TrEMBL record:
PANTHER family: BLL7405 PROTEIN (PTHR34001). Residues 23-205 form the Outer membrane protein beta-barrel domain. Belongs to the Omp25/RopB family. Its main location: membrane. Residues 1-21 form the signal peptide. It comes from the Bacteria. This is Porin family protein. It comes from Rhizobium brockwellii.
Length: 205
């Protein structure tokens, strides 16, 4: 009798142990590829936002340089595409400059640019470049008053971060060269350059 009980117990264990061992089998997850960084956040889509900051401009008038330091605020809008960690797209912005020089001012500036960057999940490091325009105004008692639009180029870069799926914050630096424009026989050619630091927020749709 006892022998039969022991035999039954041994048989039961011989069946149960492999089954339990099979259930406890651990599969090692696949290791990520070397150098690969996940970008779970989706940067693609349309966005619209506002920005503000400071600009340091220099106007060249009648052979002399006029320095203009100004606070500024404006709007931006763009569209991003994403391929893996690479984000690229287009952006337009318009800024109003508050401070004016006694003889010259850059009342506003605008741009149409391409952007390309590397996304580290919710953080984007980007470079940008494109066409820039500025609204120049000259007021010199001996030469008269004149307004004109100067057109040139702009380039820079910055960092953008997705605080939520829809709210983005950014900081960027850009240099712009607005070229030269003829403001008439009494004033001649007027040129302007600008360096600016901007901070902004956007809503991604």
């Amino acid at each position: 009798m006892h022998i039969r009980l022991v035999a039954c117990a041994v048989l039961a264990l011989s069946v149960a142990v492999p089954a339990v061992a099979a259930d406890l089998t651990y599969e090692t997850p696949a290791a990520p590829s070397a150098g690969q960084v996940s970008s779970a956040y989706d940067w693609s889509g349309f966005y619209l936002g506002a920005q503000g900051g400071y600009s340091w401009s220099q106007a060249k008038i009648l052979g002399s340089d006029q320095d203009i330091v100004s606070g500024m605020s404006g709007l931006h809008a763009g569209y991003n595409f994403q391929s893996g960690n690479i984000v690229y797209g287009i952006e337009n912005d318009f800024n109003y400059n508050f401070e004016k020089n006694d003889n010259a001012s850059l009342e506003w500036d605008a741009s149409g640019r391409a952007r390309v960057g590397y996304a580290w999940d919710r953080t984007l490091f980007f470079a940008t470049a494109g066409v820039a325009a500025g609204g120049g105004k000259v007021d010199i008692p001996a030469a008269g008053k004149k307004d004109g639009i100067l057109i040139g180029w702009t380039a820079g870069g910055g960092i953008e971060h997705a605080v939520t799926d829809n709210i983005l914050v950014r900081g960027e630096y850009r240099h712009s060269d607005f070229g030269n424009k003829d403001f008439g026989s009494t004033i001649g050619d007027v040129g302007a350059t600008q360096d600016k630091v901007l901070f902004g927020t956007s809503y991604k749709f």
